[in-house]
Every structure is written in C-alpha cells, then in structure tokens.
Amino acid sequence: MKRVVFIFLLLAPLVLSAQSHLSQTLYWARYYLRWHLHPRWTLHYELDNRQFLAPAQGQHQLISHLHLHRSFGARQQWEAWAGVSASVVSRQKPDEPPAPFRPELRPWQALSLQQKAGHFRIGHRLRWEQRFFNVFDERENRFAFRARYALTAQYPLHPHWNLKSGNEIMLQWGEGQARAFDQNRLWGGLEYSIPRSTLSLELLYIWLHQLNAGGTTVYDRGVLRLTVLQGVEGYKN
Predict the structure, then answer these.
(1) CATH number of domain containing 79
(2) Burial class (CB in 10 A: 0-12, 13-18, 19+), 31
(3) What's the N-to-C CA distance of the chain in angstroms?
(4) Which of 21, 70, 142, 185 could cross-link 168 (Cys pair, CB 3.0–4.6 Å)?
(5) How far apart are CA 25 and CA 27, in angstroms?
(6) Number of domains in the chain
(7) 25 lies in which domain range?
C-alpha cells in the first residue's frame, strides 16, 4: 500500500507529456471555514482569490465553494460531500485584457476516505462536477462534466505542524472539450495550527499541468497558495 501511494504521488505527473508548454507563476490566497454542525455533519466554505505573478501580474480567477459533509463508518473515516461552486475567470494569460463577466456555476458531489498507514494519514477523494459555463449568456452557455481523483498524505512533524502532499488528476467531457484530460495537480507544503485558537495556516506549492478545452494550449503553472483555515463548533457535546 505504501509503495503504491508514494509512486502515485511522485511519478504520476511524469506520464503526462505535451508538445508545447506555457509557463506561468501564480499566487492563491484562500480562506477556509469548517463549521461543525453536528458530530457527523460539517459545513465548509472556501473563498479563493488567484493572481498572476509572472510573466506579468494580474487577476486570474475568483472562486468560492460551499459544501456539506456527512461522515459515516464506525470510525467516521468515510465522508459524503455535496456542494456548489461559483467562479469568474478574468483571463488565462496575464498579458490578455480581462474577459467579459461570464461566470461558471458548478454543482458537485464527492466521496472521501481517510486511512492511517503508520504515522501517515492517507486520503482518497473522488469528486464529480457538473460545470455550467456562461450561465447568464443564452448564446454562449455550455456544459461539461468533470471527474476528479485526489490522493493525499499528511505526516505530523510536531503537535502544531503537519507535512502535506497530494496529487489530483481531472478528466473532463463536454461541448468544446477536445480531449478527456483536463489537468493534473501535484502539491506539497506545511500546515501550522496556532496554539489556543481555532485557526491554522497552510502554505503549499502546487505544480499544475493543464490543457485548455480546445486542446491547443498547455499551461504549466507554479502556484504558491496560502490558506487561513478556521474551525467553528456549532454544537455542544
């Protein structure tokens, strides 16, 4: 099991090759709220602002997610998720002018499993997304279905520090989609839990290999993501 996990995390992106690449550097600033409504029910909210840093600066995307989780199993290691995302992409290249206001609305569902392998905590997540693009423009709206599988690993370095890594592969089908492959994300970093508070800070480096819908452009994106995570207890034991 351990060998399969580490081979997937480290080597899976290497099998994805492309003839041409467009390299970009981005910074993502994210706020993540977990609101515990019940021992088995949790409401999650995310707000993520994504900016280009190189080869030029500029706004890339603003995206938010609202999702409800229900844990089950004897040790609550399984979770079923349902949520909706709203996104506005300004541009895919920092030297392009901002695009017209054409948002995406994205209902989705997911199933996840958390397991322990020695000191490691291994996570599996399968997610299905229904993507409605340009939802306010009857002439140019389109639909795509996307499937995502993520494998994650955490290792406790200290009571307040966690080492994190992961790999996620996304496949997509729909109108205007030239190929099934959408993108691959590989990441690693640290999470620090602030003592005597409900907050933690997470800093990840994400390597993102993405193919545009038409299959004509490949983006190799290096992303530095800073997340402020907050947990709120909404019930009494």
Answers:
(1) 2.40.160
(2) middle
(3) 36
(4) 185
(5) 7
(6) 1
(7) 2-233
